[in-house]
């Protein structure tokens, strides 16, 4: 039985898709059979970030509508073993994701995979609720600013009350905070909330802090999940986050504003 | 999965607890009321703008003011208030309200009569701005509610008929209400309303005070009015006459 992990945020553009790709790839590299499912119907950019857009033949909606089988629609990543993508449709709207359809597809996938990572659309509307509904674990992606933190708080309320686990009275969805686009320099100047501020407001476990980094943009333009860029600060931060997700303890890096050494100047942001 | 989730709803009716302002009429002359209203609105125009109100006619029910109800409604509307219903009065009043496009809140819905009648989900628990009622608070206390999870932004929790005990935080944008006391052992952000059915003895206690609004029996105070020295401190909020007292614990 797969664990279903939703990557969600409420606010748009905070790094959900970037994180879904990185964490999905990280889990697969750790030997877990992993699928990343794009719930952002109509926009479809997971496959772009993963560099797979030209290999999409069938998508999530085709499988829901039984126009294709799961095996036809799942795209196998050529760089990372055990990693598969189920793309979103570009031509449909969010109503194409029916409750029963989504449940059926996730149930079928659960038999074959260890992890199913659901990349949620922004907002707290139907598409986002659907991505959250079946989750066992949630990675709440938050930027260090007030509006993003407020939206994450709202999403945490929904996770505790409007998911399958809540409806069935099962143990609650396990919540992880992933703080992204973090800039220690801007925190020091008082332009952003600090890690401590955000932890205090949201009061959930900190899975990782991903620094604001040029390497994210470079990697996504190249169609490579940034976690595969071993030398980059963001890539390393995602590696730490995946290790913590799998139970390892690691100190948080990239949270303070120390001077960059030669290495940092060459490879950092 | 349930049918309700499977269909794609275009509208939804939801029972919600809202704090509503009650405008009690204590004089049956439209002129006198108009003058007083103007004076009040001038004091705090922003507060009154688009404020939904229930007109409580209990005190003037025996007068002929109901004949002037359309005029009174017009008067309120031109001052940017939004009358939504009347409360109290007899059949003559109900008819006048109907003609003026207002609904009628039966007098049974006020705290006194609730002793006999169980409360419904759609009942408005309190009048935020006005002292809810001069009647004795007679809300029956039952068990109370203990909440272990944080109350998140956009969520609302109401302990009907008792105390509300919050073991974790209340987030900004959340609202907690109780007929009795509210105890919060985490940080209290958002809005906290105790004694919402008129219990003036109800109190609010919290470990770390960062609320946007606190209210007891309809008397409320907002963060601008709080003493800054109390921010983040353990406090208790209690009602003394018409004033809220916020003190360090
Ligand atoms: N750590 C980071 N450093 C710098 N840029 C980042 C970082 N994380 C994400 N970005 C950039 O932010 C933008 C939004 O990222 P992404 O698409 O992952 O967000 P999203 O939450 O999925 O957005 P949406 O809500 O639209 O689905 C992208 O341009 C991405 O390259
Ligand atoms: Mg996205």
Task: List the topology elements.
The complex is a heterodimer of chains A (269) and B (249).
Chain A: E1 3-8, H1 16-29, E2 34-38, H2 46-49, H3 60-64, H4 70-73, E3 75-76, E4 83-86, H5 99-112, E5 115-119, H6 126-133, E6 137-142, H7 146-161, H8 164-167, E7 174-182, H9 184-188, H10 195-202, E8 205-211, H11 214-221, H12 233-245, H13 262-267
Helix pairs in contact in A: 1-12
Chain B: H1 3-6, E1 19-24, H2 30-43, H3 45-48, E2 52-56, H4 69-78, E3 82-87, H5 91-99, E4 103-105, E5 126-127, E6 145-147, E7 156-159, E8 164-166, E9 175-178, E10 182-188, E11 191-194, E12 204-209, E13 213-216, E14 219-222, E15 235-240, E16 243-248
Parallel strand pairs in B: 1-2, 1-5, 2-3, 3-4, 6-8, 7-9, 8-10, 9-11, 10-12, 11-13
Antiparallel strand pairs in B: 12-15, 13-14, 15-16
What does this structure look like?
- Chain A contains 13 helices and 8 strands.
- Chain A is an alpha/beta fold and 269 residues long.
- The longest helix of chain A is centred in the middle third of the chain and has 16 residues.
- The relative contact order of chain A is 0.17.
- Helices cover 16% and strands 29% of the residues of chain B.
- Chain B has 5 helices and 16 strands.
- In chain B, helix 5 links the parallel strand 3 and strand 4.
- The relative contact order of chain B is 0.11.
- Classes of the chains: A alpha/beta (269), B alpha/beta (249).
- Chains A and B meet through helix 5 and helix 7 of A and loops of B.
- The site of magnesium ion (MG) has 4 residues of chain A, from helix 1.
- Strand and helix order of chain A: EHEHHHEEHEHEHHEHHEHHH
- Based on CA atoms alone, the radius of gyration of chain A comes out at 18 Å
How is the largest sheet of chain A built, in terms of strand order?
3-4-2-5-1-6-7-8
The mean pLDDT of chain B is 79
Shape of chain B: globular
Q: Termini separation of chain A (Å)?
A: 39 Å
DSSP helix count of chain B?
A: 5
Name the assembly state. Answer: heterodimer
What is the distance, rounded to the nearest whole angstrom, between the alpha carbons of the first and last residues of chain B?
49 Å
Major sheet description of chain B: 6 strands, mixed
The radius of gyration computed from the alpha-carbon positions of chain B, rounded to a whole number of angstroms, is 19 Å
Number of helices of chain A: 13
Largest sheet of chain B, order of strands side by side? 6-8-10-12-15-16
């Amino acid at each position: 039985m797969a664990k279903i992990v939703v990557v969600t945020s409420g606010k748009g553009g905070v790094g959900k898709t970037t994180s879904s790709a990185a964490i999905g790839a990280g889990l697969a590299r750790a030997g877990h059979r992993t699928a990343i499912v794009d719930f952002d119907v109509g926009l479809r950019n997971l496959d772009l970030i993963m560099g797979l857009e030209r290999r999409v033949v069938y998508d999530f909606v085709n499988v829901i509508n039984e126009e294709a089988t799961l095996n036809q629609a799942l795209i196998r990543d050529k760089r990372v073993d055990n990693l598969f993508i189920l793309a979103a449709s570009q031509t449909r709207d969010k109503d194409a994701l029916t409750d029963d359809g989504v449940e059926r597809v996730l149930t079928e996938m659960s038999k074959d995979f260890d992890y199913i990572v659901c990349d949620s659309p922004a907002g707290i509307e139907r598409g986002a609720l659907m991505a959250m509904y079946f989750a066992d674990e949630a990675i709440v992606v938050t930027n260090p600013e007030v509006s993003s933190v407020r939206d994450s708080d709202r999403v945490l309320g929904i996770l505790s009350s409007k998911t399958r686990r809540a409806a069935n009275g099962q143990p609650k969805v396990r919540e992880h905070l992933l703080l992204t686009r973090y800039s220690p320099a801007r925190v020091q100047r008082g332009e952003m909330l600090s890690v401590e501020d955000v932890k205090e407001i949201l009061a959930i476990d900190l899975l990782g802090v991903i620094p604001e980094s040029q390497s994210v943009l470079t990697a996504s333009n190249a169609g490579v999940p940034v976690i595969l860029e071993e030398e980059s600060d963001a890539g390393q931060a995602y590696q730490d986050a995946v290790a913590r997700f799998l139970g390892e303890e690691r100190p948080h890096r990239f949270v303070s504003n120390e001077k960059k050494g030669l290495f940092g100047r060459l490879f950092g942001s | 999965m349930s049918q309700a989730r499977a269909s794609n709803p275009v509208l939804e009716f939801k029972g919600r607890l809202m704090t509503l302002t009650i405008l009690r009429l204590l004089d049956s002359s439209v002129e006198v009321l108009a003058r007083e209203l103007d004076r009040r609105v001038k004091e705090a125009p922003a507060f009154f703008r688009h404020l939904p109100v229930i007109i409580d006619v209990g005190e003037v029910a025996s007068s002929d003011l109901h004949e002037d109800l359309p005029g009174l409604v017009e008067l309120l509307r031109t001052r940017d208030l939004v009358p939504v219903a009347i409360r109290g009065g007899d059949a003559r009043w109900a008819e006048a309200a109907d003609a003026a496009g207002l609904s009628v809140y039966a007098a049974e819905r006020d705290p006194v009569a609730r002793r006999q009648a169980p409360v419904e989900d759609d009942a408005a628990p309190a009048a935020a701005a006005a002292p809810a009622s001069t009647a004795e608070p007679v809300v029956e206390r039952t068990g109370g509610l203990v909440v272990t999870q944080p109350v998140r932004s956009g969520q609302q929790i109401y302990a009907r008929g008792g105390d509300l005990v919050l073991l974790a935080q209340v987030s900004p944008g959340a609202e907690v209400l109780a007929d009795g006391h509210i105890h919060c052992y985490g940080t209290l952000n958002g809005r906290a309303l105790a004694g919402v059915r008129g219990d003036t003895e109800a109190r609010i206690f919290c470990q770390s005070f960062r609320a946007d609004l606190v209210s007891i029996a309809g008397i409320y105070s907002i963060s601008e009015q709080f003493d800054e020295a109390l921010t983040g401190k353990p406090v208790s909020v209690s009602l003394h006459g018409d004033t809220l007292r916020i003190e360090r614990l």
